[in-house]
Design goal:
Oligomer: single chain
Strand content: 5-15%
Pfam families: adh_short
Keywords: NAD, Oxidoreductase
Number of strands: 7
Protein name: 3-ketoacyl-ACP reductase
Helix content: 40-55%
GO molecular function, one term: oxidoreductase activity
Number of helices: 7
CATH class: Alpha Beta
Bound molecules: nicotinamide-adenine-dinucleotide
InterPro entries: NAD(P)-bd_dom_sf, Sc_DH/Rdtase_CS, SDR_fam, SDR_subfam_1
CATH superfamily: NAD(P)-binding Rossmann-like Domain
Structural class: alpha/beta
Length: about 270
């Protein structure tokens, strides 16, 4: 495999498992050192699937080290910008630079509109939208200071282009992430920093564990006609985390050097239906 990120350093949130782990391992295989953050602990009570653990984060560290690259793994909550800054500052002191940010940490809560509580709405917005803003704010100045430009990738969703039924908060937060990417792209462009949003469709990750399927089915039953609104064009229904990591590596590499403020969908066409 060619090393498309040799000598670069990537800051990745939500890296304990799922897509965040795939981004970390794939970027390390491409030659990048990694600053990896995850809450690695309980998610808000409204989240129906299993939470990540410190062992999950340790496994990501192990997998990255197995590639021969360096990694700083730390438990931090993306809702806490000071905690993020502390980790990124430490990582940059250790690895010498920052080139790439992947704001990937996120949660989802399937529930009908009238079962959504003020608390679950706040939790989803706080983590998916404010947490993504915090992630950029913790890292962007370091990329600017390097003077070489860089790439910021904000993980949105198919729900950031179209909408996801039974997830008013999630759809709002992921549309917000799309807006963050475009707005940051405008102001950071003069520093040769590209900012794009990446929009996965369904991905096979631990988001599907625990009571997630039961919660989805419960919500679907309230309005079954909406169930077909996310229909992929390709025969597969669900992507693997590595499929999304392939796109993230491309966005992080110089191969996409003129791509900024774009919405890059890896969703089997589902948002075009
Ligand atoms: N799985 C899907 O079908 C799918 C589809 C489209 C978009 N996405 C998005 O992709 C991203 C990654 O999700 P995934 O599928 O890998 O799910 P996941 O639950 O396996 O991974 C998300 C990780 O983020 C961490 N995290 C959550 N809140 C955090 C916080 N406040 N601070 C720090 N870490 C936190 C979790 O602990 C977890 O390790 C999310 O933004 C999600 O919304 C997922």
């Amino acid at each position: 495999m060619t090393e498309r990120l040799t000598g670069k350093v990537a800051f990745i949130t939500g890296a304990a498992r799922g897509q965040g782990r795939a981004h970390a391992v794939r970027m390390a295989k491409e030659g990048a050192d990694i600053i990896a953050v995850d809450i690695a602990g309980p998610l808000p009570p409204s989240v129906p699937y299993d939470s990540a653990t410190p062992e999950d984060l340790a496994e990501t560290v192990r997998l990255v080290e197995a590639t021969g690259r360096r990694i700083l793994g730390a438990a931090a909550d993306t809702r806490d910008v000071d905690a993020l800054r502390a980790v990124v500052d430490k990582g940059v002191a250790e690895f010498g630079r920052l080139d790439i940010i992947v704001a990937n940490a996120g949660i989802t809560v399937p529930e009908a509109w009238n079962e959504t509580t003020p608390q679950s709405f706040r939790d989803v917005i706080d983590i998916n939208l404010t947490g993504t803003w915090n992630t950029v704010m913790a890292g962007a100045q370091h990329i600017i200071d390097g003077g070489r430009g860089g790439s910021i990738i904000l993980i949105s969703s198919a729900a950031g282009i179209k909408m996801q039924p039974f997830m008013v908060h999630y759809t709002a937060s992921k549309h917000g992430v799309t807006g963050l990417a475009r707005a940051f792209a405008a102001e950071l462009g003069k520093h040769k920093i590209r900012v794009n949003s990446l929009h996965p469709g369904a991905v096979n990750t631990p988001m599907g564990t625990g009571d997630m399927m039961a919660a989805l089915n419960r919500a679907n039953e309230t309005n079954p006609g909406l169930m077909n609104m996310v229909t992929p064009f390709l025969p597969d229904f669900i992507a693997e985390p590595e499929d999304i990591a392939d796109a993230a590596v491309w966005l992080a590499s110089d191969e996409s050097r003129f791509v900024t403020a774009s919405r890059v969908a890896v969703d089997l066409g589902s948002t075009q239906f």
